[in-house]
Amino acid sequence: MTGTQWVPLALARDIAPGTSAGTMVEDAEIVVWRDTDGRAHAWEDRCPHRGMKLSFGFVRGDHIACLYHGWEFDEGGICRKIPAHPDLEVPGSICAARYGCTETGGMIWAALPLGTDPIEVPALPDAVPVRSITLEAGLITVADMLLNEENAVIEGALATLDCAHGPLAIGVQPIRPGTVALHITTRPGASAETLLAICDWAETLRRAAEKEIAA
């Protein structure tokens, strides 16, 4: 990845309040979590104490706690509690590394690389989440297949196109070389039948991309 870029991490509906999930972007490990008030966060998936994945931990209010020793970090990434030392005034220098994070177009996005925050935050129209799929195929192969669809455009990590079942906006997440996740959304008001048809379209795309790689 060159320069600073907003990259989708998940469909917004898939990260419920009080939960977390681990993901990757170009081998960078990220925890995406939502506090119990509904705010989304994206951090480096590593506790600064012993390196345990924070995605293995649990969310308490606006804190996320490490599973290993229970260290708790507030929404600003600052450690606020060390259970083994309940009377300790925790130094403010103990903190988790955070990505810029926003929620738009039915997806949660992070600003990469770590430590950057683009001036222009993506402002996408309301969308209905359909599904996320993971393809064992390279980014170029996936992009070429998306561009074969009608009215297809890829700008940054967002693809917009018209499939046979209506317009789609798709967040493209490069997980690692040879693995890509697609976060698929469509316009509000789509029927249940249409949503199922889009899921079938996505599965057909996945099989075609992986077949091309295997050939």
TrEMBL record:
Q: Which domain of life is it from?
A: Bacteria
Tell me which UniProt keywords the record has, alphabetically.
2Fe-2S, Iron, Iron-sulfur, Metal-binding, Oxidoreductase
> What Pfam family is a match for this entry?
Rieske
Q: Name one GO molecular function term.
A: iron ion binding
Keyword Oxidoreductase in the entry? The reply is: yes
Q: CDD domains in the record, alphabetically?
A: Rieske_RO_Alpha_N (cd03469)
Span of the secretion signal?
A: none
**What is the protein name for this chain?**
Rieske (2Fe-2S) protein
